[in-house]
Amino acid sequence: MARTQGHGNPKWTRDETILALDLYLQLDGVVPSPKSASVIELSNMLRSLPYHQEAAKQPTFRNPDGVGFKLMNIRQVATGKGLGNVSSMDRQVWAEFGHRKDEVHRIASAIKTGIEVAGLEPLPEIDQELPEGRLLTALHVRRERNPKLRKLLLEARRGEGLCCEICEVTRQDLDTSMQEAMFEAHHLVPLADAGERKTKLSDLALLCANCHRLIHRAMVLHSRWVDIDHAREILRQASAHRRNSR
Ligand SMILES: [Zn+2]
Ligand SMILES: [Zn+2]
């Protein structure tokens, strides 16, 4: 499935582009030589991301020269000067994050921690990649799907009746296992802050499967972390808008 360019290397992913943007912003727009320690360090990190495993065996994959070119492409998007081969991912990540230096740095640090946290356990497939990129999204989904935590959450909420924290849907007429099938755990800690901490029950919200998809979709559309109150507000405004336009 890897699409290729240049030396047959896969296209840069969102995570990888965020890591390069972080270096560009940390150096205040000065593009260092491919021989510099910062470029070599980034090259090594990109080669250790837990995907592209096959490609990463190629010596040209994200090598310091390739990283240098990517930094020049980012500079081109940032300044409008240059003749490089800028990708749509470069433009998109710059449009979303080019003026959010501190946030980019927090996300980049979380991706670095995420490489350690991911370990050798397989990462789940994801269908909606959040703005922070594939690795942090996959770790978020892996935390949410942890069967032990899901069980604890359902047990803790059973007493008060299972109810979605966004739309408040509840089906207490159904038997327990049918009710449980409606709900999913959503991890409340923003992707860039989750790091190595162990998930606690208080880090999880109980959402119906619909609202869980909606809150993730809202994060993709807003290119920001969306909390439960914000998600409720989005739904409330949409229904108010609909009432008014009738
Ligand atoms: Zn709901
Ligand atoms: Zn979630």
UniProtKB/TrEMBL annotation:
The lineage of its organism: Bacteria, Pseudomonadati, Pseudomonadota, Alphaproteobacteria, Hyphomicrobiales. It comes from the Bacteria. GO terms for molecular function: endonuclease activity; nucleic acid binding; zinc ion binding. Residues 148-213 form the HNH nuclease domain. Gene3D superfamilies: 1.10.30.50. This is HNH nuclease domain-containing protein. It comes from Nitratireductor aestuarii.
